[in-house]
Amino acid sequence: MFDLLIRNAALPDGRVGVDIGIRSGRIAALEPALAAEAGEVIDAGGQLVAPPFVDPHFHMDATLSLGRPRMNVSGTLLEGIALWGELRPTLTREAIVERALAYCDLAVSKGLLAVRSHVDVSDPRLVTVEALLEVRERVAPYLDLQLVAFPQDGYLRSPEAASALERALDMGVDVVGGIPHFERTMEAGRASVEVLCRIAAERGLRVDMHCDETDDPLSRHVETLAAETVRHGLQGRVAGSHLTSMHSMDNYYVSKLLPLMAEAEMAAIPNPLINMMLQGRHDSYPKRRGLTRVPELLAAGVPVALGQDCVLDPWYAMGTGDMLDVAHMAVHATQMGSGEDKRRLFAAVTDTPARVLGLEGYGLEVGCHADMVLLQARDPAEAIRLRPNRLKVIRRGRVIAETAPERTRLALEGRPGAVDPAAYAPPAAS
């Protein structure tokens, strides 16, 4: 007897016709045609059941603040930082909590049940930290929120950032962050990476740095981050986010850099939507688009996890909270269009970021938490193509969100009476 039984599911690894038995909030059985009863039965109808989506890079303290104090007219990263700097002194704990909780509601509706959020610690009041620690506690029953101490104005550049970052970690923030390319000099950026990795090693914490988010091919702090990772024994616990300068680096240098990153067991966290929007702003044509070298990183054995980064904030006036939007952009921007490519990019918004965050009990295997999403699509490639409705979102064996299947009624003579977008899937995966 199961609490919940999902019948006839397709799984991301290609298995079809699978039944999933759930008991006490965990997956208790996973096999075809389970001979069992359950308190609740869901017929997946041969559609895709996936583990929940995971966003490894977000800014929840800024989300839904678009237009405050005004719009980003230039659309650049630097104007976004300047606008955030104007808004930051006016922030209240209550306002941040309200916006963050509203975003988490949206995330759950999209099957996004784990988020790593960078939290700005440049304001010594640390109102952002207080607010998101409260949010982390309040959403814990339905969403895993991991927090990064992020010195937005530069760890060395901002006079009070060093002490504020230490206090944020003392308060319970999970991960050490940084932004070396925003320091005053390349040397200061290198020094900040060294100090921040030492702090993480001493505290036994993970590291996730905004690294080389620039079009400058000589911004090479990722090299220092990889070296410091090895020096401090942080292998498997460090991520470099953005890495957009790699888009502009010469091939010979990258051929040396990729093995160094792989040796350090670093992860890469590109943010396709934001990187495509913000980079190349100083170019006319040809115009660089900034997204880092995703296929090359994967080929080198570097784990790649894709982030949302922003939704309706000073940096990005768009965003839906849907990680399939992120994967969809990545398919186009990286030209990773084969069926296998799309399966790897689907993993980059599910399994890979779950490993980067160190999530316990994540996945679709017996013994894992019963956290999953039923999508109106047949397989990962179709899920990325369609960005379909989340028919069921399940957390610890309980349905916490559901959306009706998408159907459009037609009134066309001699044609079908309705259209189901999922019915257009090709006979076999492309």
TrEMBL record:
It holds the Pfam family Amidohydro_3. Keywords: Hydrolase, Metal-binding. The keyword ATP-binding does not apply. Its EC number is 3.5.4.1. SUPFAM superfamilies: Composite domain of metallo-dependent hydrolases, Metallo-dependent hydrolases. It comes from the Bacteria. Residues 40-400 form the Amidohydrolase domain. GO terms for molecular function: cytosine deaminase activity; isoguanine deaminase activity; metal ion binding. GO terms for biological process: cytosine catabolic process. It is an enzyme of class 3 (hydrolase). NCBIfam families: PRK07572.1. This is Cytosine deaminase. It comes from Rhodosalinus sediminis.
